[in-house]
Amino acid sequence: MKINMKLVIGLSLIVFSIALAFAFKSNISPYLTVSEVVRKGEAYNVQVNGTIVPDSTQYFPENNTRIFLLTDGKEVIKVIYTGAVSNYQEGIPAVVVGDYKDGVFYAKKLLLKCPSKYQTE
Questions:
Q1: Do the Cβ atoms of 69 and 52 come closer than 8 Å?
Q2: Cα-based distances in Å from 35 to 70, 73, 104, 117
Q3: pTM of the model as a whole
């Protein structure tokens, strides 16, 4: 009886560890440049570094959606983001987190760098 209980506990720990490893792996999102994302053609659960292209933003207040272009100086991608944003400003570095498919990046998160750091004095 003791051996069976130890076996059940051991197998349970192994299964739990494997499930935990898969859950952790699925939540990891690698950093890519805009050029790397364009080259891939499709990318899921990634973080993309770039700069918001000046005069590229369309804002739709009825559903709090922004459509803008993001560039790394070589390539440009179209980004669609719905959600609240503070300190949104064109021409500053940003990181978008989400999925790239059909030539559009669907952002789940938009992380903006501090705008004052990039303003000239």
A1: yes
A2: 10, 9, 13, 25
A3: 0.72
| The residue type at 90 | E
> Cα dist. 96→10, 26, 77 in Å?
41, 17, 11
Strand bridging mode 76-82 / 104-112: parallel
* pLDDT tens series, the chain, 121 aa: 566 777 777 777 787 777 666 665 555 667 889 999 999 889 888 999 999 999 999 999 999 999 999 999 999 999 999 998 888 889 999 999 999 999 999 999 999 876 555 445 4
What six digits make up the tokens of 26?
């699925």
Closest among 88, 63, 77 to 32, alpha carbons compared = 77
Q: Are 50 and 100 in contact (CB under 8 A)?
A: no
